[in-house]
Write a structure and sequence with these properties.
331 residues, alpha/beta, Rossmann fold, Zinc Finger, Delta Prime, domain 3, 2 domains, DNA-directed DNA polymerase
Length: 331
């Protein structure tokens, strides 16, 4: 897709203004920190900037998207563009050292070198210190892009050596309109924009049979918990765990869970037009008659706590069993 900086400015106008000014003046910083929520386009922008710097047929400052450099950046095969991802739960010192070794060599095809560190907040202390030394002695032909959703987890000494650009979430209404243009129903669009700010990810989720089934499983669990029986733990064993296999899938399930309880609260306070799960109105109204506002807030807090524990790598089965017990006690 032959995107231009002008088109990208509709997504992140301030970020685009800063980067295009630097490109036009040939003053691209040696280190940037792109910070913002998941789905705000940080990695996409980092790769687009790389294409603007390496493109063989750049027009003004826009990459052509068709030359060998652009294509190799798209496919992840450019020898002078390196992307570092967490190895397991963290980015390790050896990964930064390997990067430094690569950069001590002359550029394979030019003097230019470019690297992206995704989820930079997941660097171990040793990895952060190694990177810090790297940032303190920049090569004039090197550009570093650090990406993070958790800027508060980054070392101040690293932040001080980067130019920080903040990526803002796209207004939900704009994203809903874009999804409707792609043929998605308003009801489905309204649900998925609560889970992601990325149009590409939203479309991927909506076309995924796993996601449709996940929504059913979450609603079934909500009904089981509402039935006042003690079958919640059995449901987790028989239905939840076989469907939600990894941390990312469990997080999606917890997000859907949160939408459900937020909708009940919305009904309870008389703002039914704000409900997200429009097709579940009857169930929402039924549960709203049986719970207090205080109970709902307790349940939502329990889900938020479960999400925090998930981020701390608590085992998924243990986490869900504890959550169900907490929700049953508070009902």
């Amino acid at each position: 897709m032959s995107m231009t900086w002008e088109e990208l400015s509709t997504i992140q106008p301030i970020v685009v203004k800063m980067l295009t000014n630097s490109l036009k003046k040939n003053r691209v910083a040696h280190a940037y920190l792109f910070e913002g929520e998941k789905g705000t386009g940080k990695k996409k922008f980092a790769l687009f900037l790389a294409k603007s710097l390496f493109c063989q047929h750049v027009v003004d400052i826009n990459p052509c998207h068709t030359c060998s450099n652009c294509k190799r950046i798209d496919s992840g095969n450019h020898p002078d563009v390196h992307v570092i991802e967490p190895d397991g739960l963290s980015i390790k010192k050896q990964q930064i050292q390997h990067l430094q070794e690569e950069f001590s060599k002359t550029g394979v095809e030019s003097k230019q070198k470019y690297y992206i560190i995704n989820q930079a907040d997941k660097m171990t202390p040793n990895a952060s210190n190694s990177l810090l030394k790297f940032l303190e002695e920049p090569n004039e032909h090197t550009t570093a892009i650090l990406l993070t959703e958790q800027v508060n987890q980054m070392l101040d000494t690293i932040l001080s050596r980067c130019q920080t650009l903040s990526f803002k979430p796209m207004p939900k209404q704009i994203l809903i309109s874009q999804l409707i243009e792609e043929g998605i129903s308003p009801e489905a669009a309204n649900v998925v924009v609560q889970l992601t700010n990325s149009k590409e990810e939203a479309l991927r989720l909506l076309q995924d049979d796993w996601f449709a089934e996940a929504r059913k499983v979450v609603l079934q669990l909500c009904e089981v918990l509402d039935s006042k029986t003690q079958h919640g733990l059995i449901f987790i064993q028989e239905k939840w765990l076989p469907h939600f296999h990894d941390r990312e899938q469990t997080e999606r399930g917890l997000d859907l869970f949160m939408i459900f309880y937020r909708d009940i609260l919305t009904v309870l306070v008389g703002e039914e037009e704000q409900v997200i799960l429009c097709d579940q109105h009857q169930l929402l109204k039924k549960i709203a008659l049986q719970v207090s506002q205080k109970q709902l807030i307790q349940r939502m807090n329990a889900i938020l706590e479960a999400k925090k524990r998930l981020s701390a790598n608590v085992q998924s089965q243990l986490l869900m069993e504890q959550l169900v017990l907490n929700l049953q006690e508070g009902s």
